[in-house]
Amino acid sequence: TIREKINAAIQDMPENEEIKQLLSGSYIHYFHCLQIIEILKGTEASTKNIFGRYSSQRMKDWQEIVSLYEKDNVYLAEVASILIRSVSYEGPALRKQVSKAQQLQQELSRRELECQSGATDMRERYYAACKQYGIQGENVARELQALVKDLPVVLEETGKKAACLDEAINFYAAFINFVSDWSEEVLPILRFVQKKGNTTVYEWKTGNLALVVERPVMEEAPPDVVTEETVNFGISVEDGVDFGISLESGTELQSLNNCTFAGPDGVARGEDALSLLESSQTRGQFIDELKELEMFLCQRLSEMREEGDLVTMSQFQLAPSVIQAQTPERVEAMLADVRDLLNGLTSVRMQHLFMIQASPSYVKRVSELLRQKLKQADILVLKRGTLAEKRQEALEEQAKLEPRIDLLAARTKELQKLIEADISKRYNNRPVNLMGVHV
User: Fold this and answer.
1) CA-CA distance, 417 to 255, in Å (whole number)?
2) d(Cα 173, Cα 185) in Å, to the nearest integer?
3) Which backbone phi and psi does 244 adopt, to 5 degrees?
4) Are 344 and 158 in contact (CB under 8 A)?
5) Is residue 95 left, alpha or beta, with left meaning phi > 0 and alpha meaning psi from -120 to 50?
6) What is the 3-state secondary structure (H, E, C) of the chain?
7) CB-based burial of residue 22 (10 Å sphere; 0-12 exposed, 13-18 middle, 19+ buried)?
8) Residue boundaries of the structural domains of the chain
9) How far is Cα 29 from Cα 15, in angstroms, rounded to an integer?
């Protein structure tokens, strides 16, 4: 066949740059064969006889190939097939690959931005969470424990503020005694702190001042170590600093040393060495009594603001002067003092500080959850780098495909002109235009 003869003829070709270019990476068709014959006329000129024929086997082989092509216009069918394949299949396929590479680059760029934004967001969340605790975030565990060192001073100030509750406590006690036969002491621990401040649990239990206070020692946290753990990309880091730990007044937490034992007279150890507001049990009772006083003042203020209630007025004609002398404005002021103390003890920051003091494992948990945000940020940065590499690969693929499209377009245009010229010769050189030839 023609193709077999072309493959055989290619094996025996002279060293010529033009021939090399013709044979390099392109499908050899009829018009290439004509060009090769023209080149061989120069390289094989010495084999030409007086009759104008060539004795060179190379020339004979290619002339035979051309003759076979021209028989029944086989060449025209072949080049038409090549043209159709270039326009209908090869060109669109290459352009589709380029389009796919461009779309992939856009998608990867978008995901890169998402990773960058996500990493920034995670770091902002980390530092926002640290800010809620009042720490820098350099060494979370140690910084959290350092906050607890200032807790006794804060609680001491809270104990001093309780001194202003004297009038409110007396008002409540008088009201209870007036409306009921209650014989037990009202708000015992609140009254104790109001009079003596935030003393030790030992003094509250025994009534005696502790001569020696042996406070529990909190184990110092180790430095933060960022490990190269594999973290699943599916981990969800929630907004805020909600660690799923419920802090309720009256709930006893694990103490720093799990037992309270009596020492010699005047020596406070373990739980007894803590102040009333440091100990979870006595602090819970203190908060409960504050809430009890708050609810009483709220109810009493509501009743006092009711207008024209003659029945209520007649009920309090025999009440003690401490009850009758109260005005809505004064009760409202007492209520504000109670709420100020209550808010100071039950704020989110104070609850976390109490947990840190009571449970070393809580510090580890908080530290790990905070560090998790930084790990997520680092993972997103690494992922962004991987996406950038893939985007560069897609860009390089596009750069390889575009010259192939240009080359195919040039060859198709050239083939179109050759076919048009060949057909034109068949019809007295009439102009011939092949339509729809676009790669």
Assistant:
1) 95
2) 8
3) 70, 25
4) yes
5) alpha
6) CHHHHHHHHHCCCCCCHHHHHHHCCCCCCHHHHHHHHHHHHHHCHHHECCCCCECCHHHHHHHHHHHHHHHHHHHHHHHHHHHHHHHHHHHHHHHHHHHHHHHHHHHHHHHHHHHHHHHHHHHHHHHHHHHHHCCCCCCHHHHHHHHHHCHHHHHHHHHHHHHHHHHHHHHHHHHHHHHCCCCCCCCHHHHHHHHHCCCEHHHHHHCCCCCEEECCCCCCCCCCCCCCCCCCCCCCCCCCCCCCCCCCCCCCCCCCCCCCCCCCCCEEEHHHHCECCCCHHHHHHHHHHHHHHHHHHHHHHHHHCCCCCHHHHHHCCCCCHHHHCCCHHHHHHHHHHHHHHHHHHHCHHHHHHHHHHHCHHHHHHHHHHHHHHHHHHHHHHHHHHHHHHHHHHHHHHHHHHHHHHHHHHHHHHHHHHHHHHHHHHHCCCCCCCCCCCCC
7) middle
8) 138-220+252-368
9) 20
Q: Which amino acid is at 298?
A: C
Please answer whether residues 152 and 257 qualify as being in contact, where contact means their C-beta atoms are separated by less than 8 angstroms.
no
Under a CB-based contact definition with an 8 Å cutoff, are residues 130 and 136 in contact?
yes
CA quadruple 67, 19, 7, 73: dihedral sign: negative
- The residue behind tokens 């023609």 is 2
Q: What is the pLDDT along the chain (439 residues), one digit of tens a residue?
A: 888 888 888 888 877 778 888 777 678 888 888 888 888 887 776 667 655 677 778 888 888 999 999 898 899 999 999 999 999 999 999 999 999 999 999 999 999 999 999 999 999 999 998 888 888 888 888 888 888 888 888 899 999 999 999 999 999 999 998 888 777 888 999 999 999 999 988 888 888 887 777 776 655 555 554 444 434 434 333 344 343 434 343 333 333 333 344 445 678 777 888 889 988 899 999 999 999 999 999 998 988 887 555 555 666 677 788 888 888 899 999 999 999 999 999 988 888 888 888 887 888 888 898 889 999 999 999 999 999 999 999 999 999 999 999 989 998 998 999 999 999 998 998 999 988 888 7
Q: Given the structure tokens 């109001």, which residue do they identify?
A: 194
Structure tokens at 256: 């720093």
